[in-house]
């Protein structure tokens, strides 16, 4: 269809299991995608579909709990950035209609127990580990694509603590989401290194690859995980890789009441002490960005996204 974004489907099998030339061929495909639209659909990525389906099921069980109960796990602190946020808690220049649960690598004090949702913590921890392994492979592939040496990202991801997020966009009247300044999630870029994004079959995710306001659908493709570049990777690569705007709006093919939609992003950030300074490759190339400390960057961007945190920008 004309209004679908031109996002390549890339098989990761040859990067995971292939020889050097095969790995390089995958890295080249990634380079082409990330230096243009900024997104790929990755298939053969090694995370079994049954596991992904299980996490979507767990998300439904969690979000179906009563609101008062979900608020007992409310996210309280931008640095820990862990727990539940309700409809309206997160928005940066507009109104989102979604609820989220954030899970982290080292500490999850605001996490449902087995009494609340059987198997929640254990299964989330396991899935987190699988996303983490895939995420580090994606970084290796990006390092190869940029000719930085495969191990480039190892030194800045020793203590990396990505954010695994469950999202439910509740069933809602179309006219509410379609008001000016509202969306399921308003246009934004992600602010870490890169994101793995699993989506269900409902649709509504759109990307604006060239920042012209011309949003195109990133349609659900079964068996794939979307990978998108985020702001720190764009800065590090001095704009070679592009962190592009995206949003979630009403799916085209539904009536006046939108069905609920679920998605599961895994946001990869470098170690907090890492300095993200643009890498120059060409003679005469000039840095487009000042260096930034990854930890400060993350806390600043996180707190300015949440309306309810005391540290949020006024
Ligand atoms: O729900 C989606 O497909 C996108 C979510 C997203 O962009 C985000 O949480 O940053
Ligand atoms: Fe995003």
Automatic annotation (TrEMBL):
Q: Gene3D superfamilies per the record?
A: B-lactam Antibiotic, Isopenicillin N Synthase, Chain
Gene Ontology molecular function, alphabetical? metal ion binding; oxidoreductase activity
Q: Which GO terms describe its biological process?
A: small molecule biosynthetic process
Q: Where is the Fe2OG dioxygenase domain?
A: 159-270
Establish whether keyword Iron is in the entry. yes
Q: Where is the signal peptide?
A: none
Write the record's keywords in alphabetical order, separated by commas. Answer: Iron, Metal-binding, Oxidoreductase
- What family name appears in the similarity comment? Belongs to the iron/ascorbate-dependent oxidoreductase family.
* Protein name from the UniProt record: Clavaminate synthase-like protein
Annotated source species: Clathrospora elynae
The opening ranks of the lineage are: Eukaryota, Fungi, Dikarya, Ascomycota, Pezizomycotina
